[in-house]
Amino acid sequence: MKKQIESAENSAHSNKLLQRKIAVITGATRGIGLEIAKTFGLNGADIIGISRNQNRYDSSRAFFDEHEIIFSYFQGDVTDPDRLREIALEIKRIYQRVNILVNNAGSASIRSGIKTMTVGEWKQVIDINLNSMFYVTSCMLPLLLNKPTYESASVINISSIAARIGTRKVAYTAAKAGVLGFTKGLAGSLAEDNIRVNAILPGAVSTDLTSGWSKSQRMDIEGKIPLGSIAEAAEIADAALFLALPLSRYITGQSLDVNGGWIMP
Ligand SMILES: NC(=O)c1ccc[n+]([C@@H]2O[C@H](COP(=O)([O-])OP(=O)(O)OC[C@H]3O[C@@H](n4cnc5c(N)ncnc54)[C@H](OP(=O)(O)O)[C@@H]3O)[C@@H](O)[C@H]2O)c1
Questions:
Q1: Which residue of 18, 120, 187, 238 sits 20 to 30 Å from the alpha carbon of 43, by its own alpha carbon?
Q2: In a domain, 264, yes or no
């Protein structure tokens, strides 16, 4: 019954599939997070973006204004639970609820090779790529639970192909594999509340995170990808849109590999 009500709601707004949905996206100011914000916004969602540097938000603001997308920006670090609690309170005051949470913020830039990594670096990488997902989700959970009970909510965690293939960035690989375990545990725990939880594992994507790759590194990677190219961030955003929509209403606890066929687990 609840699924029928939801699909009826969406067909009534078929050109705006996320009409009346509130989406929290961490790292929504650059790369994959920014494209998810644009894609969800163009589909009718109100966006709540969290990142550390407001300047980055300011430079992408014109897009949201031009398309009349409501974007509420909160400056904050996803490794700072106190700040996240303040943000959640503010979201509760303004919106009362959240329908979609995308745990996207992460970083592969900290040194995390086993031969040189310090304890501090290990903790830093795990904190930004794994612990942050717990901090953000636990702060947003009361808001996700605040939706009408017949509506489903969706949590989307951005992992990485690194979780499948193993890379020399040992801490990053461990954190991104941990994201898959976190996703399954959360999916099992929240299914009774009509909250679905899934992970996306991007392969190589053209963003700031990969902008340091040399031409030969890029060619080497593209040679391994059956679909022949490194992904655009928008291609990851389309997968996130699918997981946010009732189209995926029977999918939870899954890991969606979006990598051009680079690996086929
Ligand atoms: N690009 C790839 O090839 C690739 C492949 C697999 C997985 N991924 C994963 O996809 C996600 C997005 O990657 P991306 O390539 O789009 O990265 P990106 O271009 O570096 O963007 C990262 C975003 O996260 C924010 N951010 C970083 N650290 C943060 C923190 N501590 N607190 C709050 N916000 C923070 C950044 O904003 P501020 O710096 O202003 O805070 C930015 O908006 C990451 O989880 C990454 O591991 C990427």
A1: 187
A2: no
Q: Is the CB of 26 under 6 A from ligand 1?
A: yes
Q: Is residue 53 part of a domain?
A: yes
Q: CA torsion, points 200, 31, 221, 106, in degrees to nearest 10?
A: -60
Residue-wise pLDDT for 125-182, tens only, equals 999 999 999 999 999 999 999 988 888 999 999 999 999 998 999 999 999 999 999 9
**Residue nearest atom 13 in ligand 1 by C-alpha distance:** 32
Q: Is the CB of 103 under 6 A from ligand 1?
A: no
Does residue 263 lie within any of the structural domains? no
CATH of the domain at 87: 3.40.50.720
| pTM metric for this prediction | 0.94
Active site residue 172: yes
Q: What is the extent of the structural domain holding 23?
A: 2-258
* φ, ψ (nearest 5 deg) of residue 197: -135, 125
Taking the centre of ligand 1 as the mean of its atom positions, its distance from the CA of residue 108, in whole angstroms, is 8
How is 207-227 classified by DSSP, letter by letter? SGGGTT--HHHHHHHHHH-TT
Overall number of domains in the chain: 1
